[in-house]
Specification:
about 260 residues, alpha/beta, Rossmann fold, six-stranded mixed beta sheet, globular
């Protein structure tokens, strides 16, 4: 039986390589876990293959894609087949909640955020791309269609901040520095390693490429390959190869009572 698509991308097709190419980066993981505070029970919404889930806390994972649930390692608890918009939890039933690079997939983002606020007593930690900061990445020159699709899907991070700041709560946006050897293969992770975009497995594990037409994708790869071979890319962007970190569109939105 075909899998019902929960978001705007079919992860039965594009999610098969996530556990290989989207491995959690320990420095980003440390930021997420610190933002969760001293919570003992944590809800992970859009949990996928389990990246960034704490191992030292009681975690309830929510993931609507069967293809992603199957990639969870045996060391993690099985994920519940449910969606952000209808969390099967009681009010104020968890100490903290996390949603890592997933809100752009939700069919009704506002409903999902309201559900997080309903079930969570303490911190809510969302890692998301800021659609208003996508232009900072050199990829905007080579694949403007991809950057525009990302901008539409992710939207301004200020909207997340506002939604997670109802009366009795406050939310702040924290930039996430991306290390040069980042192990989580989202697009900006390869700011210093442009050759990685020539590997189809890498771009298959980056969901926004699903919104780029085949001819635009072919043009992107052909142009980037030519510029890497000729040295044109390094003439313009070679300084990125030695930048220890990149501040792009990746953010944490952290909402706490207060």
């Amino acid at each position: 039986m075909a899998e019902t698509i929960a978001g705007d991308v079919d992860y039965a097709v594009r999610g098969v390589g996530y556990s290989r190419h989207r491995r959690p980066d320990p420095r980003i993981e440390a930021m997420i876990h610190a933002a969760l505070g001293d919570a003992r029970t944590v809800l992970n919404v859009g949990a996928g293959a389990g990246s960034y889930e704490p191992r030292d806390r009681l975690v309830a994972a929510i993931e609507p894609s069967d293809a992603m649930r199957r990639q969870r390692p045996p060391s993690l608890a099985p994920a519940i087949n449910a969606r952000a918009e209808a969390l099967p939890l009681d009010d104020a039933s968890v100490d903290a909640a996390m949603a890592i690079l997933t809100v752009h997939q939700w069919q009704d983002r506002s409903a999902g955020l309201r559900q997080l606020l309903r079930v969570t007593r303490g911190p809510i930690v969302i890692m998301a791309f800021d659609g208003e900061a996508m232009h900072r990445f050199w990829l905007a020159e080579y694949a403007p269609e991809m950057i525009e699709a990302s901008r539409r899907r992710d939207g301004p991070v200020a909207e997340l901040q506002a939604a997670l700041s109802p009366p009795g709560r406050r939310a702040e946006v924290r930039p996430v520095p991306i290390p040069i050897d980042c192990t989580d293969g989202f697009t900006e992770a390869f700011y210093a390693r442009p050759e990685r975009f020539l590997d189809p497995e890498v771009t298959m594990a980056q969901s926004t490429w699903a919104f780029v037409a085949a001819d635009a994708m072919e043009r992107f790869r052909r142009t980037l390959a030519a510029d890497l071979a000729s040295g044109a890319w390094d003439e313009r962007y070679g300084a990125h190869r030695t930048m220890p970190e990149f501040i792009g569109s990746l953010t944490l939105v952290v909402s706490v009572p207060g």
